[in-house]
Amino acid sequence: MKSTKWQPEAIKKSDVIKAAKFWNSQDSYAPFRDSNSYDVIIGSMPYPPKAIASKAHEIATGKALKPSDFPGARDGLWHRTLKALGFPIVEKGSDDALAYEVIKRLKESRDARLRRLAKSTSAKPMRTAVTVNRFIRNPDVVAERLYLAKGKCGDCKKPAPFNRILDGAPYLEVHHIQPLSENGDDTVENTIALCPNCHAEVHDKRRLEMTSE
Ligand SMILES: [Zn+2]
Ligand SMILES: [Zn+2]
To answer: What CATH class does 139-211 carry?
Structure first.
């Protein structure tokens, strides 16, 4: 859909960063609120994509967007615009979204956090329904990679830290070098067997790569 009303192409990376600074300086930015479904990641911190897109559009063109200017959130015009500028969109409730939210909370004051913890009334987490597209991984690829690994991590070369209780085999995790979500192949060649430490480190680095250019 071609729109003359909006000029997403006018938004520059620096406009998005300015919009994030603006959001930080406000207690609220009516009519936008924290988003329920997605965050956009700017400088390792999560922000509500609609509010950021609206403010960035205003900085770039002089015209703010209204909530009604956001038809269809997922992979809609504004998500695509932010992503194209190098700002990842993460789904609330995902491990990535939690990781960024924790980074933010660690930067904020501990007093405020302790007040929130004291006030929180429920020890049971909220639930949300999400639509997930899962990849059906080929078990032969996993088995063959584990066989080739001979019980050693493909990165640090150390032996697996423990044996799986189910069958006594060395516990290693089979990781896709080019992620399946980025069109990587589910082949033995595109996998590496990693110990849990190295696997966590690889995904931590990937988050950083997502966050910077
Ligand atoms: Zn390792
Ligand atoms: Zn992995």
So the answer is: alpha beta
